[in-house]
Amino acid sequence: MSEYSGFLTTARAAALEAGALLREKYFQTTEVRFKGEINLVTEADTAAQALLFDRLSTAFPDHDFLAEEGLKEIRGGEYRWVFDPLDGTTNFAHRFPFFAVSIGLERAGSLVCGVVNNPMTGDVFWAEAGGGAFHNGNPIRVSETADLGRSLLATGFSYDVWTTRCNIAEHERLILRAQGIRRCGSAALDLCFVACGRLDGFWEFKLSPWDTAAGAVIVREAGGLITDFEGRPIDIYRPQVCASNGRIHETMLGVLKSV
User: Fold this and answer.
1) I want to staple 125 with a disulfide (CB 3.0 to 4.6 A). Which of 49, 192, 196, 239 is the partner?
2) Domain of 65: which CATH number?
3) What residues contact 202, with CB distance under 8 A and at least 6 apart?
4) Is the pLDDT of residue 36 over 60?
């Protein structure tokens, strides 16, 4: 048994339970509220967050907690759970079945394990520091694509894109260099798809810690590279994220910095 296996087992069970709740609510009429012009929250977000907090805080009462829907219990503990109960709320509200439960764990500021579950597809990804990355129990590795022109990338756009046009120019520059770009609406799943080789790279501006905490561990343990746009090691409290198989990373960063 590894150092973090107990944490990972609890997180995986919680992610599956929260995913089952989201799947049930997906087929029901859902209340939708607006936190901004295009930023949604649903009753499913809050119900899943309450479930996750209950399971994790019961198992680990001395840990800290940070989550999207206003949860912040920071007491300076060694461990901090950073999670998004529903990454891809806009997709969920529109019945587009690409969303996930995302749970990451930090130890003294270092990411040590993560779980991402898409309850609509049955895709469950997880990883722990030094233990490798897995998809539904099978080991995963990043792709070996070394040419940006043969690469499939993904990105996302911030909630203020209407006014800031953030990432419009970068998207235009990269779509003229890559084989293709997808915009699926869940950063957590995009990172997992980089980890398992379905995507070769991903970038996005203005992400929050709960968007990337789990996926960053999974990419790293699958042999990928995840940094900010300057090439510095990932810090989930900085909003820029570039993840790749490592082989196209410098080229991606060069294009992003050229805009």
Assistant:
1) 192
2) 3.30.540.10
3) 153, 154, 155, 187, 190, 191, 193, 194, 241, 242, 243, 244
4) no
Whether residue 159 contacts residue 38, with contact meaning beta carbons closer than 8 Å, is answered with yes
Whether 38 has a pLDDT exceeding 50, the answer reads no
Task: Quote the number of domains for the chain.
Answer: 2
28 burial class (0-12, 13-18, 19+ CB within 10 angstroms)?
exposed
CA 42 to chain CA centroid, Å, is: 19
**Residue 179 and residue 232 in one domain:** yes
39 has pLDDT over 70: no
Q: Are residues 129 and 19 in the same domain?
A: yes
> C-alpha 58: how far from its chain's center?
24
pLDDT tens per residue across span 76-114:
999 999 999 999 999 999 999 999 999 999 999 999 999
pLDDT at 26 over 60: yes
What is the C-alpha R_g of the chain?
17
**Are residues 211 and 155 part of one domain?**
yes
